Amino acid sequence: MFKSILWSTVAIVAGLGTAFVLVIATELLCGMIHPVPPGLDPNDLEACKAFFSNYPQWLLGIGAVCWGVTALSSVWVATRLGASRHFAHGAAIGLLLLTAAIFNLAMLPYPLWFKGTILVVLPLGIILGIWLARSPSQPAPQLLKEPA
After folding, report:
1. Spatial distance between the Cα atoms of 48 and 45, rounded to a whole number of angstroms
2. How high is the pLDDT of residue 145?
3. How many domains are contained in the chain?
4. Alpha-helical regions (H) of the chain
5. Would you put residue 31 in left (φ > 0), alpha (ψ -120 to 50) or beta?
6. Does 40 reside within a domain?
7. How far is the C-alpha of 129 from the C-alpha of 70, rounded, in Å?
8. Closest CA to 122 of 85, 56, 52, 75
9. pLDDT at residue number 136
10. pLDDT score, position 146
11. Is residue 27 part of a domain?
12. DSSP annotation string for 100-119
Protein backbone atom coordinates (compact mmCIF):
# COMPACT_ATOMS: atom_id res chain seq x y z
CA MET A 1 0.00 0.00 0.00
CA PHE A 2 2.79 2.42 0.94
CA LYS A 3 4.62 1.65 -2.32
CA SER A 4 1.47 2.39 -4.30
CA ILE A 5 0.96 5.75 -2.57
CA LEU A 6 4.63 6.61 -3.06
CA TRP A 7 4.51 5.84 -6.80
CA SER A 8 1.28 7.77 -7.19
CA THR A 9 2.87 10.80 -5.54
CA VAL A 10 6.00 10.49 -7.67
CA ALA A 11 3.84 10.18 -10.79
CA ILE A 12 1.84 13.33 -10.04
CA VAL A 13 4.95 15.36 -9.16
CA ALA A 14 6.78 14.14 -12.28
CA GLY A 15 3.76 14.90 -14.47
CA LEU A 16 3.45 18.39 -13.00
CA GLY A 17 7.19 18.93 -13.41
CA THR A 18 7.04 17.87 -17.05
CA ALA A 19 4.09 20.18 -17.69
CA PHE A 20 5.83 23.06 -15.91
CA VAL A 21 9.04 22.69 -17.94
CA LEU A 22 7.20 22.39 -21.26
CA VAL A 23 4.86 25.33 -20.57
CA ILE A 24 7.87 27.50 -19.62
CA ALA A 25 9.70 26.36 -22.79
CA THR A 26 6.65 27.23 -24.91
CA GLU A 27 6.33 30.65 -23.32
CA LEU A 28 10.06 31.34 -23.73
CA LEU A 29 9.94 30.31 -27.40
CA CYS A 30 6.92 32.50 -28.10
CA GLY A 31 8.46 35.33 -26.06
CA MET A 32 11.65 35.22 -28.12
CA ILE A 33 9.71 35.39 -31.38
CA HIS A 34 7.14 37.99 -30.23
CA PRO A 35 8.68 39.72 -27.18
CA VAL A 36 6.69 41.62 -24.60
CA PRO A 37 7.23 45.37 -25.06
CA PRO A 38 9.48 46.98 -22.44
CA GLY A 39 7.57 48.51 -19.56
CA LEU A 40 4.45 46.34 -19.98
CA ASP A 41 2.96 45.81 -16.52
CA PRO A 42 1.95 42.12 -16.24
CA ASN A 43 -0.62 43.13 -13.61
CA ASP A 44 -2.38 45.49 -16.04
CA LEU A 45 -4.99 43.23 -17.63
CA GLU A 46 -5.94 45.77 -20.30
CA ALA A 47 -2.30 46.16 -21.42
CA CYS A 48 -1.95 42.36 -21.58
CA LYS A 49 -5.15 42.10 -23.62
CA ALA A 50 -3.82 44.70 -26.07
CA PHE A 51 -0.54 42.79 -26.40
CA PHE A 52 -2.23 39.43 -27.04
CA SER A 53 -4.74 40.90 -29.49
CA ASN A 54 -1.75 41.64 -31.79
CA TYR A 55 -0.19 38.19 -31.45
CA PRO A 56 0.83 36.67 -34.81
CA GLN A 57 -1.63 34.00 -35.96
CA TRP A 58 1.10 31.58 -37.03
CA LEU A 59 2.70 31.83 -33.58
CA LEU A 60 -0.64 30.97 -31.99
CA GLY A 61 -0.68 27.86 -34.19
CA ILE A 62 2.77 26.86 -32.91
CA GLY A 63 1.56 27.54 -29.37
CA ALA A 64 -1.44 25.27 -29.87
CA VAL A 65 0.82 22.44 -31.06
CA CYS A 66 3.15 22.99 -28.11
CA TRP A 67 0.22 22.88 -25.67
CA GLY A 68 -0.92 19.60 -27.22
CA VAL A 69 2.58 18.13 -26.89
CA THR A 70 2.73 19.39 -23.29
CA ALA A 71 -0.55 17.67 -22.45
CA LEU A 72 0.46 14.42 -24.14
CA SER A 73 3.93 14.33 -22.55
CA SER A 74 2.97 15.25 -18.99
CA VAL A 75 -0.04 12.92 -18.95
CA TRP A 76 2.09 10.12 -20.39
CA VAL A 77 4.73 10.61 -17.66
CA ALA A 78 2.15 10.65 -14.87
CA THR A 79 0.28 7.60 -16.17
CA ARG A 80 3.45 5.65 -16.91
CA LEU A 81 4.95 6.24 -13.45
CA GLY A 82 1.69 5.86 -11.54
CA ALA A 83 0.85 2.80 -9.50
CA SER A 84 -0.30 0.07 -11.92
CA ARG A 85 -0.15 2.68 -14.68
CA HIS A 86 -3.63 3.71 -13.65
CA PHE A 87 -5.19 6.36 -15.86
CA ALA A 88 -6.19 8.53 -12.88
CA HIS A 89 -2.64 9.92 -12.54
CA GLY A 90 -2.62 11.21 -16.09
CA ALA A 91 -6.24 12.33 -15.88
CA ALA A 92 -5.41 14.48 -12.84
CA ILE A 93 -2.58 16.23 -14.70
CA GLY A 94 -4.74 16.58 -17.80
CA LEU A 95 -7.58 18.12 -15.81
CA LEU A 96 -5.21 20.68 -14.28
CA LEU A 97 -3.83 21.61 -17.72
CA LEU A 98 -7.29 21.87 -19.23
CA THR A 99 -8.50 24.05 -16.35
CA ALA A 100 -5.48 26.35 -16.69
CA ALA A 101 -6.02 26.62 -20.45
CA ILE A 102 -9.72 27.46 -20.02
CA PHE A 103 -8.88 30.24 -17.54
CA ASN A 104 -6.22 31.58 -19.92
CA LEU A 105 -8.60 31.47 -22.90
CA ALA A 106 -11.35 33.22 -20.93
CA MET A 107 -9.06 35.98 -19.70
CA LEU A 108 -7.25 36.99 -22.89
CA PRO A 109 -8.64 37.98 -26.32
CA TYR A 110 -7.50 35.04 -28.41
CA PRO A 111 -9.15 34.46 -31.79
CA LEU A 112 -12.02 32.01 -31.89
CA TRP A 113 -10.11 29.50 -34.03
CA PHE A 114 -7.35 29.34 -31.40
CA LYS A 115 -9.80 28.79 -28.56
CA GLY A 116 -11.50 25.99 -30.47
CA THR A 117 -8.19 24.41 -31.43
CA ILE A 118 -6.94 24.39 -27.84
CA LEU A 119 -10.20 22.86 -26.62
CA VAL A 120 -9.73 20.04 -29.15
CA VAL A 121 -5.95 19.57 -29.00
CA LEU A 122 -5.66 19.39 -25.21
CA PRO A 123 -8.25 16.64 -24.66
CA LEU A 124 -6.77 14.69 -27.60
CA GLY A 125 -3.30 15.00 -26.07
CA ILE A 126 -4.63 13.88 -22.70
CA ILE A 127 -6.43 10.85 -24.13
CA LEU A 128 -3.48 9.87 -26.33
CA GLY A 129 -1.01 10.27 -23.44
CA ILE A 130 -3.09 8.00 -21.21
CA TRP A 131 -3.58 5.48 -24.02
CA LEU A 132 0.13 5.32 -24.90
CA ALA A 133 1.17 4.86 -21.27
CA ARG A 134 -1.29 2.09 -20.42
CA SER A 135 0.08 -1.18 -19.13
CA PRO A 136 0.93 -3.80 -21.75
CA SER A 137 -1.27 -6.21 -19.81
CA GLN A 138 -4.26 -3.93 -20.36
CA PRO A 139 -6.00 -4.68 -23.62
CA ALA A 140 -6.33 -1.93 -26.19
CA PRO A 141 -9.81 -0.42 -26.17
CA GLN A 142 -12.20 -1.99 -28.65
CA LEU A 143 -13.71 0.79 -30.71
CA LEU A 144 -15.67 -1.48 -32.99
CA LYS A 145 -17.19 -4.66 -31.68
CA GLU A 146 -17.37 -7.63 -33.98
CA PRO A 147 -20.81 -9.14 -34.44
CA ALA A 148 -21.42 -12.26 -32.37
Report:
1. 5
2. 62
3. 1
4. 2-33, 45-53, 57-81, 87-107, 112-133
5. alpha
6. yes
7. 10
8. 75
9. 73
10. 63
11. yes
12. HHHHHHHHS---HHHHHHHH
